[in-house]
Amino acid sequence: MKRRLRAAGRTLREIKMIAKGLLSTDHPVQVHIIPMRRCNLSCAYCNEYDDFSAPVPIEEMYRRIDKLAALGTTLVTISGGETLLHPQLDDIIRRIRSHGMLSGLITNGYLLTPQRIQQLNDAGLDHLQISIDNVQPDDVSMKSLKVLDKKLQWLKEYAEFHVNINSVIGAGVKNQWDAVTIGKRAVEIGFTSTVGIIHDGSGQLRPLTEEAQQVFREMKRLGKRSYARFNDFQNNIAQGKPNRWRCRAGSRYLYVCEDGLVHYCSQQRGYPAIPLADYTLADIRREFLTEKSCAPNCTISCVHQTSLVDFWRAPQGLDSHKVFRPAPAVSELVQIQPQNEESVMAD
Which of 59, 143, 195, 218 is deepest in the core (most CB within 10 A)? Predict the structure, then answer.
């Protein structure tokens, strides 16, 4: 009953988020914020971590969250690095929730225990995503179903928040069909699942092999009831085709790095690179109308989905300037949900 009540309240707040986004374009819909760049793993495809950075001090995180609330943000997703390494993560979540914003968390899951899950419940977490890349660990990724399945069972038993499981397909993945195994296991337990296409260090498409495209189609079949099936960009990405869309990064979607700078996304760090403390409504309005040159071949699903609310309005025409990086990374793509899931909100 407690889980159902929390899910109902979460759904209501998500509906309000969508309504607010439709009524006004002068606020961020979703923000990814980084309190911890260090990670306890070193996945070969990832360019979003290091092995030495200290956590952002809690008082500074409070200031950044308060600023996001002042800008009218509706969803804040905590990312990294490995987020569970931050010693005051629960306080960060509580600060987000104190402003009425939805709270999300992305983790590799290694540090989850029944006690840690209960602490996340108590902090008021709304959504958690775990990345699982293969069935058996290999030299590309240690985030395997073999290692993490026990964590999933603990989450099923104790978590009062929505749980999503993310896996990857594409270049560098040894067994493309592992994504299907992981997706089926997530749905069997009662979670949602996403699969992501490996992209390069600027978030640009790396074309799929025929086998990977078969896996993609199977994941789409599994996810026939999910929100993500309405995003036509997914099919084009899988087929290596460009998309025509209006990227609202820097406006409706913000990526705030550990240094407190606002970037378009995790793969476009370097622009606009304005301190969050100095970010204003004028910046939001400028970036809303700025055409991003990297958009046609972008695979960053969180930006696509956040921008979807505004696909029908405000044609873009202002020029953009981009900073590209060559290292590979990953983004989520297709969402799969079980029949009895109360709420879906993929990051």
Answer: 195
